[in-house]
Amino acid sequence: MKRLKERRLNKIRKEKGKKIRIALAQINSTVGDLEGNMRKIEDYIKEAKKAECHIVAFPELAITGYPPEDLILKPQFIKDNLEALKEVKRNTSGITAIVGFVDKKSDSTSKDGASIYNAAAIIHDRRLIDIYHKILLPNYGVFDEFRYFKAGKKYPVYTIDDIVIGVNICEDIWFPVGPTRFQAHAGAKLIININGSPYYAGKRLLREKMLLNRAKENKVVIAYVNLVGGQDELVFDGQSIIVNEKGEIVLRGKAFEEELLFYDINIPEKNVKTGGKRKAEKIVITNKRLSIPVPQIPEREIKPLSEMEEIFRALVLGTKDYIEKNGFIKVIISLSGGVDSSLVATIAVDAIGRENVMGLFLPSLYTSKESREDTYELVRNLGIKLIEVPITEIFEQYLKTLPREFKDMPQGVAEENLQARIRGNVLMAFSNKFGWLVLTTGNKSEMSVGYATLYGDMAGGFAVIKDVPKTMVYKLCEYRNKREGNTLIPQRILWKEPSAELKLDQRDSDVLPPYEVLDPILKAYIEDDRSFEEILKMGCDVLCAKNVITMIDNSEYKRRQAPPGIKITPRAFGRDRRFPITNKYRSY
Amino acid sequence: MKRLKERRLNKIRKEKGKKIRIALAQINSTVGDLEGNMRKIEDYIKEAKKAECHIVAFPELAITGYPPEDLILKPQFIKDNLEALKEVKRNTSGITAIVGFVDKKSDSTSKDGASIYNAAAIIHDRRLIDIYHKILLPNYGVFDEFRYFKAGKKYPVYTIDDIVIGVNICEDIWFPVGPTRFQAHAGAKLIININGSPYYAGKRLLREKMLLNRAKENKVVIAYVNLVGGQDELVFDGQSIIVNEKGEIVLRGKAFEEELLFYDINIPEKNVKTGGKRKAEKIVITNKRLSIPVPQIPEREIKPLSEMEEIFRALVLGTKDYIEKNGFIKVIISLSGGVDSSLVATIAVDAIGRENVMGLFLPSLYTSKESREDTYELVRNLGIKLIEVPITEIFEQYLKTLPREFKDMPQGVAEENLQARIRGNVLMAFSNKFGWLVLTTGNKSEMSVGYATLYGDMAGGFAVIKDVPKTMVYKLCEYRNKREGNTLIPQRILWKEPSAELKLDQRDSDVLPPYEVLDPILKAYIEDDRSFEEILKMGCDVLCAKNVITMIDNSEYKRRQAPPGIKITPRAFGRDRRFPITNKYRSY
Q: Does the pTM exceed 0.90?
């Protein structure tokens, strides 16, 4: 009976050409949660087996979460991660699993007698068939992989039935002359590339273009599986894809959602010339005959999100995961009636639900009637609670208490900052009393030029829109309002001129150029490392360029003490841009 | 006439054996100050020429300052640094100068068409003879050199008269099988190693032991020149040394002071077997005959400092340079009558003079009579000004203003932090009003377990003793009192039990184990990455170890927003220990 069924399936297989059923598990692992990540991997293996997949692939460092940073320097952490892998191995009967983990190999040439690798375990039917070590280690931008890992040197291929497969990790696939080419030369027709590829706006397009090229160059199918989730300043977008040997996308996973993707891969008949200079190890996984079970998986292709939708959802997931993975339930946000705090509150509601978002309105003498009305309207639209604590009397008490030598000087920035810091203190008092996480509301334009008060509006646990330029803040609000159908963020908030309201008739434009002028300069100087001359060539005024550059350079000390926030541009502050505070370089 | 003099000098030279006169310029360059660093290098070249030196050597990246971090990613910065080097070159008539800078070479295999190197220019008599590229790039601890530099591959030697010299950079000399050995095999009898070697307690001994070994192994003289000065979280100690081929220290430069060191080096006659597998390029610098001018330089050897003196001076220089290189003149410190703020004030006075240090006393209801007396006594001893601003009324106004839902909860951490943050706000108001830099006073033990208030006592520009464990704080005070002869820091401050004085009868020991118990656990877990089991084996109580580890793990978010402070242990917080905030790993 069993033989009969097998014959029938083999017949189907011959009719259809060579096929293999793969599952890509784009999971949301948590850094350091070895137990939780292991359970999640086991659950997805079970699901993949239920769907009769031959292979299931997990993201880079799925066991430890990514990036584990200096946890990797703890020998006990490496040991515990190896234990978790062993546990996963026990649950792979009848399937091949590709699982990212941290490997340790004894190495007499190394200082500690061992080398550490960013690795993929190739497990089949409860046996560890092989371990692949990542060869190309990124050490730029947010990445520090040379700090932790030794580079691998081998690019083996694995044979299941007579289908030859190569496995490699993230950066390994970004270079034309690299592991993918060598594995293709060794006969691989399917490359499984496992990733922890951090999101920024525009990354998906870059990534997919690269994958299409790599597939066509090498006449291989590429199955690309990516992590999902927020980790401190990074958010991972998923959007795993499968590209066929002609460079066509045949499947795309969801953005910013955990998902198990299935696909029956047609293995191409022809390959590029095998051979080449380098020899690859060939490992036979099993001699079982593959067959594609019926019913087949219906083909589906997910349309990518629009630019603003993608960024918005990155912010929502980054916020949700920071809150939840750090054990918080509720958040508190200081609402000013301005566009930044309105956007942050909206993102927070989308991330954890209106019932978990508390607004705090902290009016002063300089708070306008409009700001009050707009705040209350926003709160009504979002359906969140609002607490009002006027700060005027506290401010007056400070002024009364400060000594003569202080009061004899004209009022200025000191008094403005005093107010911002009273707000910070009240916010933190609520946070300490009730255990609510404070979300700060500063945008990238402000963070760039230091138009923010340290320990004032910068006080809080997570800076949701820290990497969002002001001009993009407006676009995101408009996108969200449009998606709502109704107005969620009151129109007047989007129309009125931005003001910190820390003194009479204050406007951002008193000290900053208009944001449409400012933001391109910021991008050029901060993200693209453009020189002063190059910035002038953009059509920028000399004085304006000098002012902006000076403000950026001089506020490094503020950024160093800022809370973390979600990277959504190619270059964020934080790990991504490591600038000295003590720095006398002036580029003009 | 000239010929006569030359003959006479040659005669002296033959009588004395082969000699070369070298100057080691252990300078304090400033990151990014290309113009200033260039002028300083030129001044020292002039001095070295006046002393008739044949060679003058400057530290690693002397032109740019060290470490320039992401400034290196700015193409204009690299260009400007090359211009500065050219300018230096013009001022080297009649001398050989070794100058650290950032080199750029076109490279078709690189993404940007160019590769960047950590380099040493070998300049002789206004000609660029050669450029050495650092081969071994550190990418651990505070170092990120793979982020910026490509590794060099050549280890040339240079011949002056018939003295063969090798130049290499910092990390290059730390490995037995490395550039030093290859250069010795190529005939080098003198190795000039230029450094930007960050200080920590114990580093000098490690470094000197390594240099003695390297000199003996290779039968070479080593001239080791190190940077001096503070740069954000790092301080460089100078202490340049010359080690002869027998492994004897023949000269040691001062600690934490800029200095031009002279020495007439006896070049050893015999060398290890030349040859070896690797071929070194041999470059003849000049065919001029060397001669040692008379009078000779008197031999001198500087005794190293005691442990506490060395650490204290590291803190003084690190503080002084942070203040001055960032353009501040005065500082303000919140004095509580406790040991931490007393030490910080004392360091500040030593760094920038009593007239530039302002004390601020911010008493509350919980401030004891002793704290007030001790503060006033300290201030008298140090001869600094004190401003007193009581915070009680401000605190009461906050409590009055906060809404019912807040006041209905029992008083606790929220109210304690409120007070600490009022102090932070007042401090920052003075800073904003008068342009004084706020020095914070938290020690490493507090920073480790999070026993500090974010935006409260953690508010400020520079955290002087952030890397000093509490037990060492006491030792440093005792050292400084002893050095004074008199009592500078009042004895009662050293005797009394530590308290934050944020509620009635509060003691640090209410929540922390005694510091003599705590500090070894902190070192084991934070600096040495010891596991829970290993910490128990140190004789630590299970509950206590769990508590301490949990407090460390849970306060990563606070440390992320802490001001920078001076690294004085093998592993500080900051660049040196990169931990995720979102981290579910528990090691027990």
A: yes
